[in-house]
């Protein structure tokens, strides 16, 4: 529950959400979709944004509902 611990756990959550979204991206690549350079760049940025926004959403839920206590 320390501030440093919360920062570390938030960073871990960002990493997990990024890994999840990039895994989904790779599933599409395995199906032969999304190899166009423009699409690949767009989905690359989308994975970064999803990692951050997803982590913020998870932590907003945790902190507003008291589930993290």
Question: Could you walk me through the main structural features you see in this protein, from its secondary elements to its overall organization?
Answer:
This protein is an all-alpha fold. It contains 2 helices and no strands. The protein has helices spanning about 5-30, 35-65. Helix 1 runs antiparallel to helix 2.
Series of H and E elements: HH
- Alpha-beta classification: mainly alpha
Proportion in helices: over 70%
Shape: elongated
Number of helical elements: 2
Largest sheet features: none
Strand content: under 5%
pLDDT averaged residue by residue: 94
Low-confidence stretches: none
Question: What's this model, at a glance?
Answer:
The chain is an all-alpha fold and 69 residues long.
What labels would you give this structure?
83% helix; mainly alpha
Topology of this structure?
Blueprint lengths: L2 H28 L6 H29 L4
């Amino acid at each position: 529950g320390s501030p440093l611990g919360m920062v570390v756990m938030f960073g871990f959550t960002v990493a997990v959400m990024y890994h999840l979204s990039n895994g989904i991206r790779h599933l599409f690549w395995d199906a032969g979709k999304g190899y166009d350079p423009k699409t690949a760049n767009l989905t690359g940025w989308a994975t970064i944004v999803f990692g951050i926004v997803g982590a913020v959403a998870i932590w907003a839920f945790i902190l507003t509902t008291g589930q993290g206590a």
